[in-house]
Amino acid sequence: MGEKVKDNNPTMEDDRLNETIKLHSAGATVRHNSPFEELESYKNEIEIDQSFREEWVIPFYFELHRNDEEWVNRIVELRPKISDEVIHKNLGDFNWRTRSTGAFFAAVKDKKEYIEIIGTHLLKSEVCYAGRTYAKVLAYFNDEKGNEYLERYLEYYLKRKDLYFDQGNIFQAVKYLDKINGTNKLDRFVDDWKEFSKGKFQNEDNDDEMETDDLKKQIDTIEKIINTAAYKTSR
Question: CA triplet 170, 175, 176: central angle to 5 degrees?
């Protein structure tokens, strides 16, 4: 008998493994069903290329929560180049790095028209790690529709004790908004928060321990970027 020729075609198992690795890298580490399945996520028709990632994603995604002067000045200089196309491409890519960056760019450009895309991404929670940025951006916009996305998130995900996603970041955002708006939206979530957070956080029985100082610094940084850019433009 002749030597068996090795089949170099990828097997179905290889395909599934490669897809799993790709999803994991994108941040889709937990697959889950939710009542938000009917919401349609914004997705790019064409996958972004490496040159776009190198220019508009890689230099920023790991820095989005900085608040130092060097970062502020860097984004102020970049701001005129951040186009709607750049924001759309980032938000439409299935990856936590791009989606986080796109949401941040929408905020520093003060573009509320992206609230629906960001809010839908938040509710569907298709990728991890992006929720903190979504929460910050929606809290910065402080728009009625955006605030509703935050509340809808807590309504559902605080009852999903099996899903440890961005409940803490969203709870913090709603608490921050209550402070600046003089509202009490958080009250109806406190009991669910205490139940959800048992064993997950220190001082989980006291929602007063959920500080908003860091979030305020992050939002102040966005405002500083916008105000500095406006001042430079007016000179």
Answer: 95
Q: Is 88 exposed, middle or buried (0-12, 13-18, 19+ CB in 10 A)?
A: middle
Where do the domains of the chain lie?
A: 49-234
Mean pLDDT by 10 residues, the chain (235 residues): 49 45 44 86 96 98 98 98 99 97 99 99 95 98 99 98 95 98 98 90 55 97 98 87
- DSSP helix/strand/coil, 5: coil
Token pair 């759309």 is at which residue? Answer: 88
Task: Please give the model's pTM, rounded to 2 decimal places.
Answer: 0.85
**Helix extents (H) in the chain:** 12-26, 50-56, 69-78, 84-91, 96-108, 115-124, 131-141, 144-157, 167-181, 190-197, 213-234
Q: How far apart are CA 92 and CA 41, in angstroms?
A: 8
Provide the 10 A C-beta neighbour count for residue 218: 23
Which tokens is 203 given? 């001082």
